[in-house]
User: Fold this.
Amino acid sequence: MKQSFLQKLINVGTVLLHASDQTTAMLELINIKKPTDIKRYLSRLIETVRDEKKHHR
Assistant:
């Protein structure tokens, strides 16, 4: 996640997503409201999907 000083003041930022897909290895979600909350949400979602994949094998 990246936030400039101004972005911190208005609670927006850029959330960076790093993927294993080589065609889109990094995706930037720019000027997202509440970026810390979004980052936490995405992290939990990714962990949930990983756990589900482990249990379905």
In short: The chain has a mean pLDDT of 91. The longest helix spans residues 35-55. Helices lie at 5-9, 35-55.
